[in-house]
Amino acid sequence: MSGRRRFGVSLPRAVADELDSLAMKMRVDRSKLVEKALISFLNEYRHYLNDHVCSGVMIIVSSFDAGMVASLLDKYKDIVMTTTHIHLNSHCIEIVVVKGPSERIAEMHSELSSLKGCSVRYIPFATVHGGLED
């Protein structure tokens, strides 16, 4: 028995078509592309699964009053190491370096993600395949 497991996934046709197009452009099969995407997704959300101390970059893009984001960042000042605020067209972009208990980072990530008009991406420094040590 190999170290792989098969299972079926249903996707909207437009997503499946885009996946096929990207796989062709990248010259990899669909399964490999889905595997890469899932590894990236799991790495981003791993802090929801196990308690640990982690660090990473949270990228926050919002198209509304940045005051709401700023007040949330202040609420989490115990884990916020530094922030950079950028305006691009009608968007506010915050680049935030965080370090602390995984449950606190997950809480911040979740709270920011729940804000209407706010998109959040967490990129941990330590990855599945190694990376910066805490």
UniProtKB/TrEMBL annotation:
Keywords: DNA-binding, Transcription, Transcription regulation
Keyword Endoplasmic reticulum set for record: no
InterPro entries listed in its UniProt record: Acetolactate_synth/TF_NikR_C (IPR027271), ACT-like_dom_sf (IPR045865), Arc_rbn_hlx_hlx (IPR013321), CopG/NikR_regulator (IPR050192), Predicted_DNA_bind_prot_RHH (IPR038733), Ribbon_hlx_hlx (IPR010985), TF_NikR_Ni-bd_C (IPR014864)
SUPFAM superfamilies, per the entry: ACT-like, Ribbon-helix-helix
Domain Predicted DNA-binding protein ribbon-helix-helix: 4-46
Entry superkingdom: Archaea
Record-annotated Transcription factor NikR nickel binding C-terminal domain positions: 71-117
GO biological process: regulation of DNA-templated transcription
Pfam families in the cross-refs: NikR_C, RHH_3
Any one Gene Ontology molecular-function term assigned to this protein's record: DNA binding
Protein name, per record: CopG family transcriptional regulator
Naturally occurring in which organism (per UniProt): Pyrodictium occultum
